[in-house]
TrEMBL record:
InterPro entries associated with the record: Cholesterol_7a_monooxygenase, CYP450_sterol_14alpha_dmase, Cyt_P450, Cyt_P450_CYP7A1-type, Cyt_P450_E_grp-IV, Cyt_P450_sf
Main location, first listed in the record: endoplasmic reticulum
Pfam families: p450
Any one of the GO CC terms: endoplasmic reticulum membrane
Residues where heme binds: C533
Full protein name: cholesterol 7alpha-monooxygenase
The protein's required cofactors: heme
Gene3D superfamilies, alphabetized: Cytochrome P450
Keyword terms of this UniProt record: Cholesterol metabolism, Endoplasmic reticulum, Heme, Iron, Lipid metabolism, Membrane, Metal-binding, Microsome, Monooxygenase, Oxidoreductase, Steroid metabolism, Sterol metabolism
Presence of the UniProt keyword Lipid metabolism in the record: yes
Amino acid sequence: MLNPAVPSCSGTPEPGQPTRRRARGTGWQLKGSTGCSHQLAQSESPGHRHFSCHPGCCPFSIWKLLGITRNVPSILDLGNGSNTLLCVLVSSREEEKVRTLSLKASQQQGEPPLENGFLPYLGCALKFGANPLEFLKEKQKKHGHIFTCHVAGKYIHFLTDPFSYHALMRQGKHLDWKKFHFATSAKAFGHGSIDPAEGNTTENFHQTFIRTLQGNALDALIEAMMENLQYVMLQSRAPKLQSNTWVTEGLYTFCCQVMFESGFLTLFGKEFNSNNDKNLSSKQETERAHILNALENFKEFDKIFPALVAGLPIHLFKSAHSAREKLGEALLHKNLLKRDNLSELVTLRMFLNDTLSTFDDMEKAKTHVAVLWASQANTIPATFWTLFYLLKSPEAMRAATKEVQNVLETAEESISLDGKHISLNRKQLDNMPILDSIIKEAMRLSSASMTFRVAKEDFTLHLENDFYNIRKDDVVALYPQLLHFDPEIYADPLTFKYDRFLNEKGEEKTDFYRNGRKLKYYYMPFGTGIAKCPGRLFAVHEIKQFLALIFSYFEIELVDSNVKCPSLDQSRAGLGILQPSNDIDFRYRMKCL
Ligand code: HEM
């Protein structure tokens, strides 16, 4: 792994003058501000091809440092303590770009201000990757509400004014949201293209998700999840909970196991048939071992997910590759068919895979791995942050437990350990505004999702008071963490306030302001517009169910009540809810009921 002291071309740019620009359609040109416009020298060693400017211009041979070699990727460790990995694959196509490096320029008229960054090909990628929020805040200060960043070969126009967000939604005619999702999914999960235009399938995935995660389908998911959470918390973890003694565990580890196991059972059903089965308990144990094994594979694969999105091939990561294949094996249709209580989502997806696609068995299975990942990767950290903030805030904990007690009482649900499970339906769970506010606040503080749209053609982006030319294939992006941490919208934005999303009546608060104007977009962990997460309602219900059951059955506390809030692991910035950079010890024991 390289740990570069980032080099630059000798000589500094002329003040106020960007040193590079895109010549439409011709790739990159570079000019050192000393006036050099050199041909890049090329040298070959077995398996590698190095490019370098002449020694006086690029003393550290940036090309070599970045490992620009034929089909050999580089991983750059920023060494800034943030665990950030930025991965760049430089293929022969990029080599062509590098070959044409030689000159200078600036943004074209009518385009947003351009930040090229100092690194050829990478542009601003390293700085952006190290801390996107700080980077974008700095550029916002410098350029205003819209600017363009060159990031790893792409031009990304960031809209930072929340009053401009609707411009992105409105101009769907010129902007594509699907291509990026389709390409990312195929790259990360290893199935063939799911873009109907490419002929492997005619399934409309978006419609499948809406149909099976919302409306009536959601009721069934909620019911199954309630049952599974109790099975996992009480029966499956029974050996740990034998006596009335405290169990100490990492909070993230706990949330991860409970949510993964329950969520997996809810979507992919159970191996065992629970009715009148003499060997039930040994079958349950085997099933649990399989799911925990799937969790290990999930974690191994999930670790390198940002690298896959950045374009690195999975073959570089042997154990993650093998983990993804094992997840695929487990979700082969022939194995799913042996399970009871498959969700409507999985049943319908299997049917559509079989009837509308030409995927082979493993590709079909990998489309299920994609669903498994989408259903868990954000939910697990969101559950952790919610419970962590509750444990840190006695006032929030009191309000939340009281709300749950009231709802249980109204529903005439009693809490016991005699095997009768608590049941709360969707309507009852919807009647918990305090939990809603707590979950929202925890996600506001931990979410770093990014909304992307790709320009289908050259067009003019109309914002509130101005307009900008956007070129075909450029990306227009929103980074809502800017909005979530804006002190004008959220006073004291880094502080957890459990009732931030409640109004004076104790109902959901929806009026948030900036510059005295009411905002339409103020909370976006689930994205927005057409591509908004189709599983968002289920996700919030899952977390509420988890909390309601924790409060009902367990006493729970932090091992160190003064423990500091863990920092956000920035390596997943742009992908959703960030994980904590370290786990936090907590303890729990069964209540004496
Ligand atoms: C706290 C939990 C969750 C968060 C924060 C979250 C967030 C997101 C975000 C930001 C997107 C991308 C939206 C965009 O591109 O603009 C997304 C997509 C998606 N999410 Fe979630 N999600 C969560 C839970 C879930 C759950 C539980 C499921 C399913 C059971 C799910 C299923 C999906 C699917 C299938 C997509 C892709 C949609 C498409 O491409 O049509 N998500 N999610």
